[in-house]
Amino acid sequence: MTDALASGKPMYLLHTTKHIDAIRTSQQLHVSTGCLVGALYCSPLVSEREGLRPTTSAPT
Which run of H or of E encompasses 2? Predict the structure, then answer.
């Protein structure tokens, strides 16, 4: 995951929410201020010919 962040290439993330309209309008994901102190709840997606899909392996 660190390598992907440092590569400078686009990273596609899956974020589930009931507030999708607000995200589309602002084009921003805001971090949670809960117990994880600034966590952004997303799952990385990988690009395949058929489209994007969630990764199957745990991040390292």
Answer: helix 2-6
pTM above 0.85, yes or no: no
- Within 8 A by CB and 6+ apart from 48, the residues are none
Residue 28, CA distances (Å) to 10, 17, 60 in order: 15, 13, 25
- What pLDDT shows up at residue 60? 47
Who's near 1: CB < 8 A, 6+ residues apart? 44, 59, 60
For residue 15, give the nearest of 7, 2, 24, 25 by alpha carbon: 24
By the 8 A CB rule, do 38 and 44 touch?
no
